[in-house]
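Work package 3, deliverable 3.1, input record:
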Amino acid sequence: MSSPSSPREQWGSKIGFILAAAGSAIGLGNIWKFPYVAGENGGSAFIIIYLICTAVIGLPVLIGEILIGRTTQLNPVGAFRALSKSKFWAGVGGMGVVAGFLILSFYAVIAGWSLGYIYESISGGLFAYADPTKAADHFIELTNNVAWIIGYFAAFMILTMVVVFAGVQKGIERGSKIMMPLLFLLLIFVMIRGITMEGSSEGLKFLLEPDWSHVSGQTVLIALGQAFFTLSMGMGAMLTYGSYMSKKTSIPTSALQIVILDTAIALIAGIAIFTSVFAVGLDANAGPGLIFHTLPAVFTKMPGGEIIGPIFFILLTIAAITSAISLLEVITAYFVDEKGWSRHKAVLVFGGFTFILGIPSALSFNVMSNFTIFGLNFFDLVDYITSNIMLPLGGLLIAVFIAYVWKFDKALVELKNGAENIFNNYPLLITLWQIFIKYFAPVLIFLVLLHSIGLLDFLSL
Ligand code: PHE
């Protein structure tokens, strides 16, 4: 978006930032990941914990992350360095760049499936899926095909690189003004179809009657990781987008809007998928393939499903692109700002590296499925380390940084820009934000991380 010589670009308008940030947040995390992770972790109890994590930790830290970006107008490494003059904190920004690179490597594999499903649904394959178990078998057949999975993964990476290369994000963001509401609408249709299917009440029960017996420290960590992942938080994507934000826009208001939108979409997707899963007799525990098993069966049971199916996968792919460009943007901004690379070189080199790193993730669904480390295949391992460890740790460090290194007296001066109304009329909210950043977020994240590595086992929680 900028080169060292040109002045840093800014979003054209207030809505520009919201669209870009919401574009980053809303993606596969909401529609693909949320339902399957909730399914694997006991349904509604997981969802309740996820909602609490989003409100108590997600929103305050998101405000903080955007604030660091807007204040410094720099990439994550430069931003932490500028505010702290310390190598350690610059390294924290560096961890974000690495996390972005790792996340993109597996994210693009799944986005490739969505791309592949556009063809599957247009080519009339959808009708072959009338029998839901056949739809699930078909998915397994496709992902067992190395050429299919790598081919679409490569195609998606190329699409993302073209967008970041050409710097046409703005066009995409403007396009999302139409496409995201459309995706929202289609999801609501799918949800209504799900709820009205015979046998859907089992799904609603799964979503509404919490079963706390499945909840452990691990569950809380995974819910926290999901809150960070779906909000694109803890690795500098929101920081980088905040760096292009005008000082006239209110950060707390924007962050709240992003959180509400993102959470609403995840919940709607969750209801749509679980009512359907139980209605058609599929397994809620199907793992990463869940939506690809389930949705084809739903589309065949919808009037106009043969049109809605392909449109849905087109929109899902676009939602994935707007998230993927924010991941690649973090890496690109770092090499452009800090190392003086050209934008084009950074995109080509790191797009290429990301593809290579993603190959073992793609192969985790077929030839490398038996290759495991700590009981996880390569795909699950990279996902686990980034979502459940690097992002929450990044969030913890952002909170600690603001409260104890940068300090509130300086942070609040910056936060007030654009948010004068809140400062003047609702000072309590600002005090609450400080309390959450200073105490709640760091302590809670720390405890969850400790517990998950077994260090709190003696408390037998
Ligand atoms: N939030 C994105 C999604 O839900 C994924 C993402 C994670 C994007 C981290 C950027 C950074 O699909």
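The CA atoms of residues 233 and 263 lie 14 Å apart.
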